[in-house]
Amino acid sequence: MLKRLSILGSTGSIGTQALEVCEAHGFSVMGLAAYSNEALLEEQTRRFRPQLVCIFDESRYHSLKARVADLPVRVVTGIGGLCEAASLAEADMVLNAVSGMIGLRPTLAAIDAHKEIALANKETLVTGGELVMRRAKVQNVPVLPVDSEHSAIFQCLNGYRHCKVNRILLTASGGPFFGKTRAELQYVTKKDALNHPNWSMGQKITIDSATMMNKGLELIEAYWLFDVPPEQIEVVIHRESIIHSAVEFEDCGVIAQLGMPDMKLPIQYAITYPERRPCPTKPLNLWEVGKLTFYEPDMETFSCLKTAKEAIRRGKLYPTLMNCANELAVQLFLDGKISFLQIAELNERVLELDGRGEVTVDNILNAEAAAREFVLSSI
Ligand code: NDP
Ligand code: MG
């Protein structure tokens, strides 16, 4: 089936690859959205001819409008515009690849508009998992994972949805600081932390991989997507990033999904599901890979993983507090305002705040503000 998509975060790492997938398979792009990159949005608008384009940053609205004035496209801005792009009447599917928890409201808007969701934005589920999955169920809307580990788990479960799962084996590359001690991490720089061994991604997720908060966020994401309790989700360090994750069933049979570390396949699988199509990714050559290695994570050095487990164990608004503290802490680290190890400290300490409220959009936004205030007053 030829789907019609709206792509949120179209100028980012996932967004640009998603557009290549659309182009390769002849899918129409009805909506595009980005934060402020008007030059690339203009280029994408000329190439894909969407009906609507959203530039979130209101100060860029008029200049983007002028850039595409010769095209039959509606230009919108702000959170209202982003939600409009998520609920476009002409689109069947919304691929949400914005970075950060700003992705929550457009995901909810897309569900309410009965769009299939291809979800890359993990912060949506970390903060609003309860709300999003409940609403998706009520509206009978599929939430298809784009994150490579969750795509792998989803693929492993296909055909076995009725079977009891013992464990999910969530693989992690270990990032650029695998094997290092806390003392060695004290003075690492932004450049060191952005140097991921296997994956080329946006800056925020690359820092999250270095602290291993990315795996913590993914553990929470897996809990919401697959309804498997956190104690049955085991993080396994797998340096080669060839096994993208695995599922162990009741009979101890383990099914894993393998492939080269390339986001094209999981992005494409979410878009073409339930079909499989040819993909321009490099085929896996196991002789070239040679060996696959596995290690237990070092939870003391990479304490973000422990913090994420504690946040989801407490549930409610605790994962939101942690996520918001992390978003701000990563930004402060990238801006040179705090050290690498301070990111994990702030994420852990923010759980001192009260996160026992109900998970509603308003409470999530209030928790976000409280976490921001906490971080800014703690540095
Ligand atoms: P990037 O930083 O490369 O791109 C982010 C995109 O979101 C850009 O298009 C950016 O626009 C846009 N954006 C940011 N804020 C807003 C906003 N308020 N309104 C509209 N658009 C906005 O990130 P990635 O592509 O790496 O990651 C996107 C999401 O996918 C994240 O949640 C990440 O965790 C997840 N993910 C990413 C993977 C990867 O391989 N990159 C793997 C698995 C998950 P602009 O360019 O104008 O700033
Ligand atoms: Mg991932």
From TrEMBL:
SUPFAM superfamilies: 1-deoxy-D-xylulose-5-phosphate reductoisomerase, C-terminal domain (SSF69055), Glyceraldehyde-3-phosphate dehydrogenase-like, C-terminal domain (SSF55347), NAD(P)-binding Rossmann-fold domains (SSF51735). Pathway: Isoprenoid biosynthesis; isopentenyl diphosphate biosynthesis via DXP pathway; isopentenyl diphosphate from 1-deoxy-D-xylulose 5-phosphate: step 1/6. It is an enzyme of class 1 (oxidoreductase). Residues 258-373 form the DXP reductoisomerase C-terminal domain. Mn(2+) binds at D147, E149, E218. Its EC number is 1.1.1.267. Keywords: Isoprene biosynthesis, Magnesium, Manganese, Metal-binding, NADP, Oxidoreductase. HAMAP family: DXP_reductoisom (MF_00183). This is 1-deoxy-D-xylulose 5-phosphate reductoisomerase. The lineage of its organism: Bacteria, Bacillati, Bacillota, Clostridia, Eubacteriales. The gene is dxr.
